[in-house]
Amino acid sequence: MAAMMIRFTALAALILLTGCAPMTIWHRAGVSVSQMERDADTCRVAALRDAPVATQVVQAPPVFVPPRQVCNAQGACVTQGGYFIPGEISTIDPNAALRARLTDRCMADRGYAPVSIPPCPASVASAAPVARTTILPTITERSCVIRRDDGSWQIVNRG
């Protein structure tokens, strides 16, 4: 569950732009979208307080390329010296996974579960009245989502 939410967060912008990937949200039927967003923000802030960002700079070990002998067609050879390729430098946050688990637990304690809703087929999207979901409906296997250009979305339960 934590891994799914981490992936959702990391890909949120891409998902919103493409419109063809499933949308993953915290869900509890009957709750307003604004309340769900407030609860998620509250849980994220609490998780950030309890497992703060602890950015660490890490470097992979360097790689040694040994000397090598290069010969031409006449058999004359030279030895080229060895050298090091420096290790890649990157940053990690060892608290990121813990923070995601704390957020997941907080949202679960509030009665939410992560759900992934597929995009609606074009025929459903064009037939549905333009609206935005303000109250989270019951999700079924026939639910789909329409993403709007303004960033809002509409969950449709096809009949």
Provide structural commentary:
With 159 residues, this protein is of the alpha+beta class. The protein has 2 domains: 119 residues, no CATH class; 37 residues, no CATH class. It contains 4 helices and 10 strands; from the N terminus they run αβαββββββαβαββ. The strands form 5 sheets. It has a two-stranded antiparallel ribbon with strand order 1-8. Helix 1 packs across helix 3 and helix 2 crosses helix 3. The radius of gyration is 25 Å and the shape is elongated. About 6% of the residues have low confidence.
Summarize the structure.
Helix content is 35%, strand content 26%.
Structure classification: alpha+beta
- Terminal CA distance reads 29 Å
SSE string, helices as H and strands as E: HEHEEEEEEHEHEE
Report the strand count. 10
Shape annotation? elongated
Radius of gyration using CA atoms only? 25 Å
Number of domains: 2
Unreliable segments of 5+ consecutive residues: 10-18
Largest beta sheet: what is the strand line-up?
1-8
Reported for the largest beta sheet, the result is:
2 strands, antiparallel
Oligomeric state, counting identical vs distinct chains: single chain
Whole-number average pLDDT? 89
Figure out the total of helices.
4
Helical content (DSSP H or I, runs of 4+)? 25-40%
Query: What percentage of amino acids are in beta strands?
Result: 25-35%
